[in-house]
């Protein structure tokens, strides 16, 4: 990467959005809350090589937190403890339309280098909290609040008709439980930095 390429990368960061760089949900290596941390799971985790593993409850789109692989150093596989017995790291949510420049700043503020990418349904009702995350507490709450303001985006129309989430304009009154749309995948700091330097980062 030379300097001119990087400068282009920096300038383009405001135009690009999370949807351009996310890892799709079907490609995400994740584990269930009930999964035992036994020898075979440890081997599986090791072979995948990721340092962060989203953890779901029941359904893969119901992500409740993230397992930091470094925490497993202290876990004895012979005990085969379920993942729910380990303290999980909270995973913030970000909309697919969020720009990469803001996303980089939020990652830089710490707390999490990974976020879940969720569609957000514009609603006329006050924003309810998600069933699994305290939205007012999470690191992206402020950015998300700034993004609100009735902007109806392309993805709202792209929802499949049989999806149990409906466009709020078709519903009256809007149901608070339908505020969040589908989970599309995950995004990490590395995904954003690769756009910045315009090159793949080789893992060590
Ligand atoms: P790691 O080095 O732990 O894999 P990075 O944050 O460096 O994580 O991300 C490298 C790439 O792998 C990124 O494209 C990111 O979206 C993807 N990634 C990170 N964690 C996972 C995971 N658990 N499952 C699938 N892809 C992942």
UniProtKB/TrEMBL annotation:
Record localization: Membrane
Domain CBS: 22-83
Span of the signal peptide: none
Protein name: DUF21-domain-containing protein
């Amino acid at each position: 990467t030379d300097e001119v390429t990087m400068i282009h990368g920096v300038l383009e960061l405001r135009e690009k959005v999370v949807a351009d760089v996310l890892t799709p949900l079907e490609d995400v290596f994740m584990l269930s809350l009930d999964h035992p941390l036994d020898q075979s799971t440890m081997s599986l985790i090791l072979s995948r090589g990721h340092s962060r593993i989203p953890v779901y409850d029941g359904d893969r789109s119901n992500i409740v937190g993230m397992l930091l692989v470094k925490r497993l150093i202290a876990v004895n596989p012979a005990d085969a403890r379920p993942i729910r017995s380990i303290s999980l790291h909270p995973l913030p949510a970000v909309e697919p339309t969020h720009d990469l420049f803001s996303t980089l700043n939020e990652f830089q503020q710490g707390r999490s280098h990974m976020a879940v990418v969720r569609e957000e349904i514009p609603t006329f009702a006050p924003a309810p909290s998600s069933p699994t995350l305290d939205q007012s507490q999470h690191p992206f709450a402020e950015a998300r609040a700034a993004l609100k303001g009735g902007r109806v985006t392309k993805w709202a129309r792209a929802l499949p008709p049989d999806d149990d989430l409906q466009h709020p304009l078709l519903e009256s009154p809007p149901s608070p439980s339908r505020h969040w749309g589908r989970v599309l995948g995950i995004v990490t700091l590395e995904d954003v930095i690769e756009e910045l330097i315009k090159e793949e980062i080789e893992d060590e």
